[in-house]
């Protein structure tokens, strides 16, 4: 219900409650409006020596480029005053806009933050710029406010990386995690090993479309690039001027095919393999022998001269142990060091790197797999496979950066719409990002102290260029900046008000190719007693939708604000047993020239209560059990929202037919998309009960035998009130298949009961 209302209530709310949205994102700790406006078009003078030179330059440049306001050097009489003060919380600043503008700040960095807030407070139009008379007091909550960028899968030039950093600056991020090496390309010059870039920086082909597609297609064109050490220094200095720390990532022992293409002697087999043009995980990784460890140390010694960051990211994720199991060098290391298995060998590998970095006065950070087989004493963990790794690490007293896929993977789809460009998968709309809290509730206050902060990750397999990168990053980066900065995050609705009132204009003025997906009409379904209500929501600027609803029974035209309230929701009731009615809706939205089509199929089960005894994975839990009986069939390529995703070997649910009925079978829609580790289940068992206590089995069919295109169906004849469905998935994906050794996903879009025709 909340979602149904969010889009449109917003506008009513916006105008009705009279409370002005705060123009600053991330929302400051205190923002108080005082009567009146400060007119910016009178001479704006500033005493140059009151702020660091780099911040002055930043302010001067932004005022000029965004507002065409010239800053004049003044003295004591200036109308824009900056005062550095002591004995205030670290990182804090305040802005007082009255008859003059007075800023106080505690550090150079907080001076920049004050300037950014001040710039965001400017509203109006050309030559009529103003700032509301107001008071701001602010400081950040977390010390690690990061965005990550993968430049291996697709390469971004120095200018593009600087642009990425510029935009980060505007939302007060302070950590740029630069993912410089991966299977598909090595992107940093290492003088001792020139072939890392002459060979490792280029691939001969790149997969086209989704890598799970069958058959796969390739573009046979050389692709690549790298940064010279001079360019790296330039980027690091550029970021430092904006108080952004660049944390380099040098992946090991996995995701190392590009390096091994250049130096195969550091692999287990010594085999020469090209830089791959395919995404995924590869078996060939660095060998754990001493020569390979020394190779890594040599590389890191050059990396350390370029990056002054406290932390150095060494990857550590997704390293299959296949080669290590059969490598005599690796087995020798296991034996000589009394290690239990290859997981301990990975830990042994990472520990040596950890000791090296510690010796050099730095700290190691790695993806949460570095916990397996024992964590190095000084290491920090970046938790990506949910929050579990981060929780465990914090409990062990290690520093943690939270970056769970559930909230932080910006390579996932941001709406379920057909207009979204191809992405890896997943479903991460703005509202879900907004729910991110870097501190899991499982942690005590003391353990929570180990959470340094969080970050969003931009993996670029499906992000080929800068425009697309901005599309995937914005506005979601604003939502995550709230989670990382705000001591008390306002509601999503309040955030959206600020965003819509000020930041789309800001992003547009800065030519950011931000996503307009939140303006797309979103079909919102609510369960009701006898069926469902359908509405359309979307944070569109004018609250107008036209909905044309047609089915073989009706052909109606609704205009006005579909979805804004009770009057604008369309009720779709359960059809008599055996009937099916197709509904289609055509919706126009003013931000887009297109109209959008939606359809659903109503039958006797639409909206019936389902109890999910096995919860879906939080990443793929859109609308809960209603998703399975909302009449909406999942489409392909899938975008997350139409499917419920489970990652359990046994999935149980109980359907309540509400009265005793004669049922003749069941049809369940499963996804078969092995490239994404989504597999059909192995068994489906259906049981019936009149009291939800004693169950009798009505079917025990082998799902693969009765499945056609992922649709499982079986027939039986039973009179029942309740049906229990138990789905058995594989425990682990077998060798030779995509995702081998991992737990498979089970995806379900719809469940339909079959009735004898009446
Ligand atoms: C990761 O997404 N493999 C860290
Ligand atoms: Zn080996």
Short synopsis of the structure:
With 758 residues, the protein is of the alpha/beta class.
Description:
The chain has 758 residues and is an alpha/beta fold. The chain folds into four domains: 30-138, Chitobiase, domain 2, CATH 3.30.379; 144-406 and 436-485, Glycosidases (TIM Barrel, Alpha-Beta Barrel); 520-602, Sandwich (Immunoglobulin-like); 610-755, Jelly Rolls. The protein is 25% helix and 29% strand. It has an eight-stranded parallel beta barrel, surrounded by six helices. The chain starts with a helix and ends with a strand. The model is unreliable at 1-17 (pLDDT under 50). Acetamide (ACM) binds next to loops.
Summary keywords:
alpha/beta; Chitobiase, domain 2; Immunoglobulin-like; 4 domains; 18 helices; 37 strands; 25% helix; disordered N terminus; binds acetamide; binds zinc ion
Question: What's the helix and strand layout?
Answer:
Blueprint: H1 2-16, E1 30-39, E2 44-47, H2 53-67, E3 71-74, E4 80-84, E5 93-97, E6 101-105, H3 108-121, E7 122-125, E8 128-138, E9 144-150, H4 158-170, E10 175-179, E11 181-182, E12 185-186, H5 195-198, E13 202-203, E14 206-208, E15 217-219, E16 223-224, H6 229-241, E17 245-252, H7 257-262, H8 290-306, E18 311-315, H9 322-326, H10 328-336, H11 342-359, E19 363-367, E20 380-383, H12 388-395, E21 400-402, H13 405-408, H14 430-434, H15 445-448, E22 451-458, H16 466-473, H17 476-485, H18 492-509, E23 522-528, E24 531-537, E25 545-550, E26 555-560, E27 570-573, E28 581-588, E29 595-602, E30 610-612, E31 644-646, E32 650-670, E33 683-689, E34 696-702, E35 707-708, E36 711-728, E37 746-754
Parallel strand pairs: 2-3, 4-6, 9-10, 9-22, 10-17, 17-18, 18-19, 19-20, 20-21, 21-22
Antiparallel strand pairs: 1-8, 5-6, 5-8, 7-8, 11-12, 13-16, 14-15, 23-24, 24-27, 25-26, 25-28, 28-29, 30-32, 31-37, 32-36, 32-37, 33-34, 33-36, 35-36
Helix pairs in contact: 2-3, 4-6, 8-11
The chain binds acetamide and zinc ion (ZN).
Residues 317-318, 367, 384 line the site of acetamide (ACM).
């Amino acid at each position: 219900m909340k979602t149904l209302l969010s889009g449109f209530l917003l506008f009513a709310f916006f105008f009705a409650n009279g409370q002005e949205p705060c123009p600053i994102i991330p929302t400051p700790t205190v923002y108080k409006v005082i009567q009146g406006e400060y007119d910016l078009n009178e001479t704006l003078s500033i005493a140059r020596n009151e702020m660091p030179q780099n911040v002055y330059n930043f302010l001067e440049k932004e005022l000029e480029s965004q507002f065409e306001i010239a800053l004049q050097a003044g003295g004591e009489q200036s109308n824009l005053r900056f005062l550095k003060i002591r004995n205030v919380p670290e990182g804090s600043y305040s802005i007082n806009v009255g008859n003059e503008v007075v800023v106080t700040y505690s550090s150079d960095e907080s001076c920049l933050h004050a300037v950014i807030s001040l710039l965001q407070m400017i509203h109006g139009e050309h030559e009529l710029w103003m700032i509301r008379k107001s008071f701001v007091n602010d400081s950040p909550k977390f010390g690690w406010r990061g965005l990550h960028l993968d430049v291996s899968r697709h390469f971004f030039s120095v200018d593009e990386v600087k642009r990425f950093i510029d935009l980060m600056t505007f939302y007060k991020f302070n950590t740029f995690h630069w993912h410089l090496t991966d299977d598909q390309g090595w992107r940093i010059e290492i003088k001792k090993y020139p072939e890392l870039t002459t060979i490792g920086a280029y691939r001969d082909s790149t997969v086209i479309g989704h890598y799970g597609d069958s058959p796969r297609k390739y573009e046979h064109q050389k692709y690549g690039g790298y940064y010279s050490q001079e360019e790296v220094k330039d980027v690091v200095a550029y970021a430092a001027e904006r108080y952004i720390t660049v944390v380099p990532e040098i992946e090991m022992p996995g995701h190392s095919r590009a390096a091994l293409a250049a130096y195969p002697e550091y692999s287990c087999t010594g085999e020469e393999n090209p830089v791959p043009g395919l995404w995924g995980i590869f078996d060939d990784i660095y060998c754990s022998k001493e020569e390979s460890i020394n190779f890594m140390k040599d590389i890191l010694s050059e990396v350390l001269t370029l990056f002054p960051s406290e932390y150095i990211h060494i990857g550590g994720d997704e390293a299959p142990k296949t080669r290590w199991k059969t490598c005599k060098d690796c087995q020798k290391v296991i034996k000589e060091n009394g290690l239990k298995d290859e997981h301990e060998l990975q830990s042994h590998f990472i520990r040596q790197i950890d000791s090296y970095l510690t010796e050099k006065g730095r700290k190691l950070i790695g993806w949460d797999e570095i916990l397996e087989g024992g964590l190095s004493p000084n290491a920090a963990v970046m938790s990506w496979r949910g929050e579990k790794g981060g929780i465990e690490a914090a409990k062990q007293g290690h520093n943690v950066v939270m970056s769970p896929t559930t909230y932080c993977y910006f390579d996932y789809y941001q709406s379920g719409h057909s207009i979204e460009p191809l992405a890896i998968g997943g479903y991460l709309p703005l509202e879900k990002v907004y729910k991110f809290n870097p501190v899991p509730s499982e942690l005590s206050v003391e353990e929570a102290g180990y959470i340094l902060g969080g970050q969003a990750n931009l993996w670029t397999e499906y992000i080929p260029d800068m425009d697309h990168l901005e599309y995937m990053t914005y506005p979601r980066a604003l939502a995550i900046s709230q989670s990382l900065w705000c001591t008390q995050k306002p509601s999503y609705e309040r955030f959206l008000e600020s965003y819509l009132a000020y930041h789309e204009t800001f992003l547009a003025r800065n030519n950011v190719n931000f996503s307009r997906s939140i303006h797309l009409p979103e079909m919102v379904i609510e369960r009701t007693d006898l069926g469902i209500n359908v509405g359309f929501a979307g944070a569109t600027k004018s609250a107008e939708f036209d909905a044309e609803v047609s089915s073989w029974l009706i052909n109606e035209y609704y205009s006005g604000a579909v979805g804004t309230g009770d009057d604008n929701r369309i009720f779709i009731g359960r059809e008599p047993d055996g009937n099916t009615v197709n509904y289609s809706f055509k919706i126009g939205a003013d931000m887009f020239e297109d109209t959008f089509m939606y359809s659903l199929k109503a039958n006797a089960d639409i909206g019936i209560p389902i109890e999910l005894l096995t919860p879906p994975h939080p990443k793929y839990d859109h609308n809960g059990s209603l998703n399975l009986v909302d009449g909406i069939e999942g489409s392909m390529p899938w975008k997350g929202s139409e499917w419920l995703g489970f990652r359990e070997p046994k999935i149980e649910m109980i359907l309540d037919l509400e009265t005793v009925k004669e049922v003749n079978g069941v049809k369940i829609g499963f996804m078969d998309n092995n490239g994404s580790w989504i597999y059909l289940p192995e068994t489906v068992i259906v049981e019936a009960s009149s009291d939800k206590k004693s169950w009798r089995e009505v079917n025990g069919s082998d799902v693969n035998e009765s499945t056609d295109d992922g649709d499982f169906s079986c027939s039986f004849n039973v009179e029942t009130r309740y049906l229990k469905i138990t789905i058995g998935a594989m425990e682990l994906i077998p060798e030779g298949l995509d995702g081998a050794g991992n737990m498979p996903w089970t995806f379900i879009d719809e469940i339909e009961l079959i009735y004898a025709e009446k």
